[in-house]
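Moderator note: this is an archived Q&A kept for reference. The question asked for a predicted structure of one protein chain; the sequence and the answer are reproduced below.
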Amino acid sequence: MICCRPGRRELLRWSAIVAGAGLLPALDPPPARAAGAVRPVNLELVTLTETSAVLTWYTGAAGTDDGLGRMEPVPSDAEVVYGTHPSRLTRTAHGPSGTPYHYVELTDLEPGRTYYYKARSNGRTATATGLAAGQAAGTPQDDTFAFTTPQPPPGEHLFSIALCNDLHLGETVAGLVGQLPWIKGISQIPGHPPYPEIMAKALIEDAHARGADYLLAAGDVSSEAAPADLLKAKSILDAFGNYFVARGNHDRAHEGAAYSTCTVGEYQGNDCFQDAFFPSGRTYYSHDLRGLRVIGLDTYDKPGDGGDSGGLSAEQHAWFESELKKDPDRPTLVFGHHPVFTENDPLSITGTHSLDAGQSLRILGAYARTPGVFLHHAGHTHRNQRSVFPLAPRVVQQEVGAVKEYPGGFTLVRVHTGGYALNFYKTHSPEARAWSERSRQELSGLWPQLSLGNRVTDRNSVVPRDLSGLRTAA
């Protein structure tokens, strides 16, 4: 997860907040029972478009514990029955059998219709992941769940962009949060490939399969900016083709012999990230994509150990505001690692989950003066969260779940002449699904509460917007 290291006072405050929300694990868990029937659990409505929905869940042996606090995995079948009335579930969809990690996509849905469904394995109905807003699987309706498909973005589809972040190539233990004493990290099963590589390769495969023309990687492509990890990240991203990358706090310049062959960093150590992705120099930029202005920010353009808030140098901030002023009405997408601000985030008490507050206020002020800016993509929090701030009400800030761990995926932006849609997809290769389900046990099994997105709209939304000046992809 994130490398923040809060002090004792912050730890106590955070623990009090989480305990008050009922999220702390029991000190004396119930004893394990003998293994029983297959139980389908962790049902989630991941993706919801105007014509499709993606559902995932897990099957395990009741009464068992795999050492991570979850049931031992048991392969089973996967079936979804659904329809437009809760008493008439007349349609059926299946996922692959013989796996505990189930992924079923419903297709040929009608825009603007309400559907009711049950997900089943081994003849038993799957239970949903518990979230504060209760929207992991849709809206509970008696013994079914319901969802309503949105209307598509108006106009002609032009092109699609995959938004992703937090690949962490080189990481070996997931889920380490500061120095919280009750948090244990999760490692890959011995003998299996490194999980960051599994997840990053699945990202590339799925982004292509979903029709992404471009890919934006918003930082922390590496665990600690080691040259070999950056080269591995670059080779995986190169397989996609048309991609753009931004620096995260993990990609900062580092001290030590392992980094000594890289360019001397502006603030400290040696900057291997710059050598890998920006050998010509500046690590922030503006680029034209079919008439869309894409601005990539370096949100750790500062000295530091990576555990503090993000920041832009004075030079970069001046360049950014000047770039926006050049053509304020031009459709513009901004991306960078740290969010402008975070909301509904218990971990934000560490003060490290966003940009410097003063800079954030200036950025929102600049967005208010730049009607063309419509989307700001951020990572760092490893969660799906859609936010709109009063100072810049035309701009959506979309935080996207990490590539490298649960929920494990990317957000697809489908750009139309009259608006755009944001849809989160979990990567779904067998290896990716297995690691995603294993890593959901981070934070003593509470990680889904903070990362999936408490509302369906944190993962999927449609926004009308005049983008008619853009051009279709070749």
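Archived answer notes: The CA atoms of residues 75 and 99 lie 4 Å apart.
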